[in-house]
């Protein structure tokens, strides 16, 4: 029997995304649909620290134990890891990996290094959709936020096509920042756009946000700015790949290019969690007075209120009045730092 949370199917993606961000989603089992509801496998029903966040998605939920089918893909990989790794390493090391298109990306901690080739081989054997396994050897760095990798198994180039939210995203993981783990967040942002808005995305990479918004919302126009020429070129390819027509991509520095935009925007998205707050004043220079900003930042939980006050101060300085700020937790970056989205609504 597996612990599940029962919610309406139409709320399933958002609820699943929330439990994943809290690291309480049990991906060893498959969800079960029944009528208008879906049962999502979870690891605990202790949700006191985020119950209010859950209630912003749905107040109609319940916890039920059910017999669910195993997710053979994740289950098989973990079984193989149990054969490869000593118990203490298996229990302490992260067993997650990220799949972007047909490329698997894994983090190898120091205690796992002597087993890394075996781990990569096990991943390819248990996930036939992966042709290349890469090991992270650096953190995202620089204005382009690119990362260095080492090939552990498989063959071919580091270019791939990833599918999410109904769009195809072509990219080279060595040249462009991209994370498939934020697919649910992109879907959440899409769900907030209900009118023919004019949207601006800053630090847009290979255009996953513009693509998702153009494909899945009634947005009138989607503009974006990206400094990485390779990301910009892949973004142009992706517009054509998905036959979309209302996206306008600009290549260059946000601070410089935003000055040349001869228009105002209803919504601005800033998915650069290490620098977004430095560009809030620039974003407000082209935001409609009753617009919305989605700003992503890394922060310690105890600093969130400080960030909210800083946002209000910057906004007031630019002549904007904050109606409310919703804080949506994204993921754990470390034991002390989390990634948040600050949804800023102006009046």
The largest sheet is: 7 strands, mixed
- Number of helical elements: 11
Q: Share of helix among residues? A: 25-40%
CATH architecture of the largest domain: 3-Layer(aba) Sandwich
CATH class group of the largest domain: Alpha Beta
Uncertain segments of ≥5 residues (pLDDT<50)? none
End-to-end separation: 49 Å
- Please state the CA-atom Rg, rounded to the nearest Å: 21 Å
Number of spatially distinct domains: 3
Secondary-structure-derived class: alpha/beta
E-strand count: 17
Q: Which sequence of strands runs across the widest sheet?
A: 13-12-11-14-15-17-16
- Assigned CATH superfamily of the largest domain: Vaccinia Virus protein VP39
Query: Shape, please?
Result: globular
Strand-residue fraction?
25-35%
Oligomeric state as shown: single chain
Question: Can you write the helix and strand succession as a string?
Answer: EHEEHEHHEEHEEEEHEHEHEHEHEHEE
Task: Outline the structure in words.
The chain has 347 residues and is of the alpha/beta class. The chain folds into three domains: 2-66, Alpha-Beta Plaits (2-Layer Sandwich); 72-156, GMP Synthetase, Chain A, domain 3 (2-Layer Sandwich), CATH 3.30.300.110; 175-346, Rossmann fold (3-Layer(aba) Sandwich). 29% of the residues lie in helices and 31% in strands. The chain has eleven helices and 17 strands. It has a seven-stranded mixed β-sheet with strand order 13-12-11-14-15-17-16, with helices on both faces. A four-stranded antiparallel β-sheet has the order 2-3-1-4, with helices on one face. A hairpin with a 2-residue loop joins strand 9 and strand 10 (167-172). Helix 3 (72-84) runs antiparallel to helix 5 (116-126) and helix 6 (183-192) crosses helix 7 (208-216). The longest helix has 14 residues, at 304-317. The termini are far apart. 34% of the residues are buried.
